[in-house]
Write a structure and sequence with these properties.
The chain has 192 residues and is mainly alpha-helical. It contains 5 helices and no strands. Helix 1 runs antiparallel to helix 4, helix 1 runs parallel beside helix 5 and helix 4 packs antiparallel against helix 5. It has a single domain, classed as Cytochrome c oxidase, subunit III, four-helix bundle (Four Helix Bundle (Hemerythrin (Met), subunit A), Up-down Bundle).
Length: 192
């Protein structure tokens, strides 16, 4: 289909989805840069390899996967015109996201308990990278939380129907992206 074909609404939806793809690509490039710098820095003499990966990060991975599943079920509820289920699944998505954030900060606490700090004399290059990567991802999660809240408010006001849910589709793209991004970062940090 020619990109210039369709109604104004169809063209607007395509443009917004393309902008979301561009934003996600930009975010991915940020993390590609951070993980590339991590790999290069791992060659340093002061790089530590006795670091124990926080158990809270394992739990947060499961919680984030559950949040993606809940968001998928939320979108499915919209298509089935089941508002009660939709609200429950969207609230479950939000709660899982909040639990994820709590677990991330708990993971920071586990790193500190090992004696590795993000800055200062007790900081290492290794853990500083881990803090930076996880913190930047958390910033994207906070953005996602705001998006989920906006979607919830609009959904409660009846703004989304099975024929009109572009905002939900854009939020879904973003939310699943930050979830997949954490899966990548988790695997990267665990195995590198």
């Amino acid at each position: 289909m020619d990109l210039t074909e369709g109604t104004i609404a169809q063209k607007t939806a395509r443009a917004k989805k393309n902008m979301m793809w561009f934003a996600m690509l930009s975010m991915f490039m940020t993390f590609a840069g951070l993980t590339s710098a991590y790999i290069v820095s791992a060659e340093r003499k002061d790089w530590i390899d006795n670091f124990q990966f926080p158990s809270s990060f394992y739990l947060s991975l499961g919680v984030l996967i559950i949040s993606s599943l809940c968001f998928y079920l939320f979108k499915k509820s919209i298509r089935q015109e089941n508002k009660k289920s939709g609200i429950l699944f969207l609230i479950a998505t939000l709660l899982a996201a909040i639990i994820f954030v709590v677990l991330q900060f708990k993971g920071f606490g586990e790193i500190i308990a090992q004696g590795f700090y993000p800055t200062g004399t007790a900081a290492t290059v290794t853990t500083s990278f881990i803090y930076a990567i996880v913190f930047v991802h958390l910033l994207h999660i906070f953005g996602g939380l705001l998006v989920l809240l906006v979607v919830l408010i609009k959904y409660l006001k009846g703004k989304y129907t099975k024929e009109n849910y572009l905002g939900v589709e854009l939020a879904e793209m973003y939310w699943h992206f930050v979830d997949v991004l954490w899966i990548y970062l988790f695997g990267f940090l665990l195995f590198m």
